[in-house]
Specification:
Layout: E1 13-14, E2 20-21, H1 28-38, E3 45-46, H2 47-70, H3 72-76, H4 83-105, E4 112-113, H5 115-141, H6 145-164, H7 174-199, H8 205-214, H9 224-241
Antiparallel strand pairs: 1-2, 3-4
Length: 242
């Protein structure tokens, strides 16, 4: 399960005659020891591959919310009994927030992520799979505790994911970096307070209803000032060359 081994740096060189000289192969055990010393231990994963998996889980979760949990009859009769549909829509918006913020969090990051980040995203996908179950407990048994707990666990995993993924500082604006630092912490605090109030019998359901809309906005863009400055420098160098 642990993907040992990272990318090996190219060791081939070309001599004066244009022939490629290859470095003699190192003993595999000695080479492995050198890799451990250099920190080349765990293989990173391409962001697009991981996000493709996460997107598939998002799609399945949203389908199960309405088809398996709510059912066709309740959906059709939404005009007569709207409670179930409204609860399913609330779950839907919660699930979509995970999709929005996860993609936005990786917008200005390197093309690969660490194994730790991958597993945090996998655990988040497990939380999304449990969403329909929490909705079922809410609608059929009247127990909303699991829904609160699932949201708190998801927000905590998302916060750890944010901190595990690096940002290319030159590409991201200050507002984007501030968003990445504050939003996960505020989300964890928000859901923690909501769950605590529920446990002591002073539930504030508006907090759980408003949460998706509070954290949905993907603030921050590219660092346009640095891009414009770099473009001006390139133009200046081209003018000098002419």
């Amino acid at each position: 399960m642990i993907p040992l081994g990272a990318t090996k740096e190219a060791s081939n060189s070309t001599d004066t005659d244009g022939e490629v000289e290859t470095t003699p192969q190192v003993n595999i055990f000695r080479g492995a020891l050198q890799d451990l010393k250099r920190g080349n231990i765990l293989s990173p994963y391409a962001n697009d591959r991981v996000l493709n998996y996460f997107d598939a889980i998002i799609g399945l979760s949203t389908v199960f919310l309405f088809i398996e949990t709510l059912g066709w009859q309740n959906t059709i009769d939404a005009g007569l009994r709207s409670t179930g549909l409204l609860a399913a829509l609330l779950c839907f918006f919660h699930v979509m927030v995970y999709w929005i913020v996860t993609h936005h969090a990786l917008k200005y990051s390197p093309d690969h992520m660490s194994v730790v980040s991958v597993w945090l995203l996998v655990l988040m996908s497990l939380v999304l799979v449990v969403y329909p179950l929490s909705l079922t407990a809410w609608l059929e048994d009247g127990s909303i505790d699991l829904y609160y707990e699932i949201n708190l666990i998801g927000a905590s995993l998302l916060a750890l994911f944010f901190f595990s993924v690096k940002v290319e500082e030159g590409r991201a604006s200050s507002l984007y970096r501030l968003w990445r630092k504050l939003v996960p912490l505020i989300a964890v605090a928000w859901y923690s307070v909501a769950l605590l109030l529920l446990k002591i019998g002073k539930e504030q359901r508006w907090m759980i209803i408003m949460a998706p809309f509070v954290f949905m906005a993907p603030f921050g863009t590219e660092n346009k000032e640095d891009i414009d400055e770099e473009k001006e420098n390139d133009d200046a160098e081209e003018t000098k060359e002419d």
